[in-house]
């Protein structure tokens, strides 16, 4: 599948975008940010240890309490539990309840601040290229209740016609229902109501959550991934021509 700038504009009438890892990323990795927070309260843990254990706990929490705990104890408690479990797996000493709460609160405040986030490579140019071609943009992301506020603080919310965060709708990718919610939402906009499935492009950084799930419902999809060959080996049905290192590569191949 190859697109020129002209064919891209002609084929796609709507672009939906994942957020984390596609449009926005953290200024530094989770391990370093968690380590920095812990240091404030005299708890010292190596960033690589925290990163490794964070990934394990993330998988565990998503299996036990999916969609950031929307059906159980809510997103804030979900993150507090994840933070506590990550540190307990990373250190040998016991942590007091007060220390855990202090670290959690510090991290909550940290992630509120736009200076801890940045646009992914090529995101700004891609957004402008879409708007220049009158292609509307929509956010479709597995994210907690803070997504709208984050987009506002990063001064990019106004670029998107609407935002669907999994926590707010109670369903998440790869469930087909979240894609159907987008299709239903389009009916509320006079200029979007006639858009067909095969005229929608979804872009994200997960083969399973973004590329495969979008194509399974009849949409088009581009995958953001740093290792095209590894993706094709693991997922041979993924078109390698639809895999890009970042949005900057999409800009260079389609709009130059």
UniProtKB/TrEMBL annotation:
Organism: Laodelphax striatellus (Small brown planthopper)
Pfam families for the chain: Hydrolase (PF00702)
Protein known as: Haloacid dehalogenase-like hydrolase domain-containing protein 3
SUPFAM superfamilies attached to this UniProt entry: HAD-like (SSF56784)
A Gene Ontology term for the protein's cellular component: nucleus
Source species taxonomy: Eukaryota, Metazoa, Ecdysozoa, Arthropoda, Hexapoda
InterPro entries tied to this protein: HAD-like_hydrolase_domain, HAD-like_sf, HAD-SF_hydro_IA, HAD-SF_hydro_IA_REG-2-like, HAD-SF_hydro_IA_REG-2-like_cap, HAD_sf
Superkingdom classification of source: Eukaryota
């Amino acid at each position: 599948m190859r697109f020129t700038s002209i064919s891209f504009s002609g084929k796609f009438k709507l672009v939906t975008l994942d957020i984390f890892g596609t449009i926005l990323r953290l200024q530094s990795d989770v391990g370093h940010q968690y380590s920095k927070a812990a240091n404030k309260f005299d708890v010292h843990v190596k960033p690589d240890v925290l990163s490794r254990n964070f990934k394990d706990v993330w998988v565990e929490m998503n299996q036990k309490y999916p969609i950031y705990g929307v059906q159980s104890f809510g997103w804030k408690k979900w993150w507090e539990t994840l933070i506590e479990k990550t540190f307990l797996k990373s250190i040998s000493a016991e942590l007091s309840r007060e220390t855990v709460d202090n670290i959690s609160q510090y991290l909550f405040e940290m992630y509120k601040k736009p200076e801890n986030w940045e646009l992914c490579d090529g995101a700004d140019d891609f957004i402008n290229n879409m708007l220049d071609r009158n292609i509307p943009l929509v956010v479709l992301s597995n994210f907690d209740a803070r997504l709208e506020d984050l987009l506002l603080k990063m001064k990019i919310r106004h670029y998107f016609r609407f935002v669907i965060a999994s926590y707010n709708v109670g369903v998440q990718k790869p469930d087909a229902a979240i894609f159907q919610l987008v299709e239903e939402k389009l009916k509320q906009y006079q200029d979007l109501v006639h858009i067909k499935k095969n005229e929608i492009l979804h872009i994200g950084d997960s083969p399973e959550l973004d590329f495969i799930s979008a194509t399974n419902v009849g949409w088009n999809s581009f995958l953001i991934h740093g290792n095209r060959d590894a993706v094709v080996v693991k997922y041979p049905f993924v078109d390698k021509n639809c895999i890009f290192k970042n949005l900057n590569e999409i800009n260079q191949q389609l709009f130059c």
